[in-house]
Amino acid sequence: MTQGEFHGVIVNFDEEETMRSALYYRALRLIEAGFVVDAHIMILATWNFARFRYVTTTFDLVAYENTIKGIATALTSFGADEFMDVDLSKNKDLIVTAFDELSKFRGVEFTGASKMLHLLNPRVFVMWDSAIMGWNGTVPQYEALDIIKSGFWKRRKFAKSGLGYHEFLTLCQDKFSGLYSPETRKTLAKCVDEFNYCKFTVPLQGADGEDARA
Prior knowledge:
The chain is mostly helical. It has 11 helices and no strands.
């Protein structure tokens, strides 16, 4: 992976994914203004719609707010660290626990948990979805992807759990080592998600009849 290839994907992302980008930056502005839960619900209701739609009238907002407050406090231990600076091995228990606590909420679950962790700390947490996780498509469909054919990534099914997410972060930290964000308003963790989204999610969209981002 070269910085040039990485750069080419990231600098075009906002123009190609206008709605997704607009929602993301709006969520960040809400968080900056102190409306953290509002930002989370907005992203869950759009990016995680395939799951969140079933709980729009029953979602336990109070319990969720208390959970993210506790997780946010725990995550302060990362300080100002960026994705490549974080000692993932040392912080394994924290990451696994935070992911599993979030994923217990119906409507959040294993794809939404990564998105919510990213909103809590955009510098450290990389988002994933069922396509990136290796669960959305057949073996031949994955083998046909350019990112697989190039040898940069091997198809694998990450466990739908905090342990699986920690393994994913560890792999991303290794694969994207030495790269940097080409845009000042995007963290490297967000750029890695955008790259993965373009290389996995977009070409596999609709595989197995489901929304790959959910």
